[in-house]
Amino acid sequence: MNNILTIAMPKGRIFEEAVVLLRKAGYQLPPEFDDSRKLIIEVPEEELRFILSKPMDVATYVEHGVADVGIAGKDVLLEEERDVYELLDLKISYCYLAVAGLPDTKMNDVAPRVATKYPNVAEAYFREQGEQVEIIKLNGSIELAPLIGLSDRIVDIVSTGRTLKENGLVEYERIVDVTSRLVVNPVSYRLKDQKINDLVKRLSDVVEVC
Ligand code: PRP
Q1: What confidence score (pLDDT) does residue 53 get?
Q2: Where does residue 26 fall: left (phi above 0), alpha (psi -120 to 50 degrees), or beta otherwise?
Q3: Residue 51: CB atoms within 10 Å
Q4: Residues near ligand 1 (Cβ within 6 A)
Q5: Which among 75, 76, 157, 180 is the best mutation to test ligand 1's pocket, defined by most ligand atoms within 8 Å of the CB?
Q6: Whose CA is nearest to atom 3 of ligand 1?
Q7: Which domains does the chain have, with CATH numbers?
């Protein structure tokens, strides 16, 4: 049986913290993890293979079974609703999703517009609030939208709050806290349960308690 475990890792902010956590858990990860453009990194000594994807795509790779497990932000899991199991809160890369906009402005009464990278989360949130909004999907630099009159509000990640502040925007409501999670493909979990449970155990031992 194929004994290699394939782990989908999100490139970008979460990546470094995830690598630190895996090393703390005792996995010997080569220097390629610190400075490389490689998209697949094999670590045969640990029987591991890593694929480096866009954060939004991690759960897609896991759902399709080309990765057995993955590290994905709760924001992505809420937005994508992929058929994967969430096994562990890694408590890294803490941030939250919030509604923000220009200060002292009301939402337009007629067809208020909300720009976001998270159309599903935003839609569900405003529906729960009983507000009908038009969602405008953007792929990044969401904070631009209210500054140039594209939207009344944005729904976006807030981490340090610097981007909002430096662009003169304020937070109106906090939607949900976000940390990174370990997710697994349901079939992989059945076939490689020992290896995956070992990973979960080793990671839970080093996850910071907060
Ligand atoms: C994220 C997010 C905010 C910013 C928040 O963007 O969309 O713009 O970080 O971080 P802060 O509160 O620490 O300022 P990212 O840098 O991932 O790039 P993006 O604009 O392409 O989404």
Answers
A1: 96
A2: left
A3: 18
A4: 140-143, 156-163
A5: 157
A6: 157
A7: 5-93+179-209 (3.40.190.10), 95-177 (3.40.190.10)
